[in-house]
Amino acid sequence: MNNFAISLVGVVVLLAALGWSIHATMMRGPETERMWRAMRAFAIAGIFFFLIFTVNYILASTGLKRSIMAEKIFGKDPIASYFFAGSGMRINHLWALVIVLASFICSGVFLRELGSLVTAVRNRLWTTDAIGFIGRIVSLLFWASVAATCLWLDTSLLIFRSATLMWMQKYCMTAASMPDPDTIIKDNLGTMGSFLLAAFRIWYPLTVLAAEKHMASSMAFLVESSRQLSAVRAQAAQPQQVPVAAPIPAGIPIAPPPAPVPAPVVTVGVGGAAPGGAAQWVRPIPFNPGPRNGGNGNRPVGV
Question: What pLDDT is attached to residue 145?
Fold first, then answer.
């Protein structure tokens, strides 16, 4: 079985495992499923971030190796020997690590400041705190300039290393005297190499920003999912409270219920004097019991 078949079987098994895990988490509730999806998204974002960082470091390190002296970190230095003795690292490795870390960290801070300013604009912060709003704008401009400088240096090393791979006989022997990226692109204008270098200049900074944004979004989604899952589990762990009637204190007399009040008799007065000059004659209307089994129908008794 060749490597392609093994890779294909591995991808099928991985997709089946992901599908089964999603189904299993769905059976345990929507919060558990949301937590699993957040962990999966964070893992994918971390892999993408790690690949971008590793490729960037390799290109920057090899690019610096062809432009500066790749000296070893000697063990005689009291500070460097404590950290790097026996590691095999050289000066170009340290420079590449610093440049790549600076570009990624400054890009992340710039995206954070940009998100903060967007939130301030949505909340109309200038109406309540004008000084704070201006401070956020100044902070965004500062970190934008720092991130642009670091990304420009990082991208220049990428273009430099790519040019040495494309035109080895033309540029590999010149080392630090190699032209800058603009001159390299202009000298080879109309070729596929020049087109790729121009594309790398735009594509690479956008890739770093996308990796940072994806990582931050996945981290926020994971934190929110973990908070919701913890809240649901805490609510389920609380005992059910059954309402209990309040006891009646002993020794306090309770008054009996009031006696029923008889209903008043409804009377209808008939106009005119009674026979013999007596007072006005009033005849009460008895209660109608409804239909009876005697043929009386709905007529009231006595009518």
Answer: 93
How many domains does one find in the chain?
1
Per-residue confidence (pLDDT) for residue 249, from 0 to 100: 57
What percentage of the chain has pLDDT greater than the value 90?
Answer: 7
Q: What is the pLDDT of residues 36-66, one digit of tens each?
A: 778 778 888 888 888 888 888 888 888 887 7
- Nearest CA to 107 out of 206, 220, 218 is that of 206
Residue 133 lies in a domain: yes
Average pLDDT, the chain: 76
Does residue 107 form part of some domain? yes
Cα angle 132, 135, 136 (rounded to 5 degrees) comes to 90
Given a cut of 90, whether residue 141 has pLDDT beyond it is yes
Find tokens 């981290």 and name the residue. Answer: 219
Tell me if 67 is assigned to some domain. Answer: yes
In a domain, 209, yes or no: yes
Residue 161 CB coordination number (10 Å): 20
Structural domain including 170 reads 3-236
pLDDT digits (tens, 9 = 90+) for 248-280: 555 555 566 676 666 555 444 444 555 555 555
Give the Cα-Cα-Cα angle 212, 214, 218 (nearest 5 degrees). 120
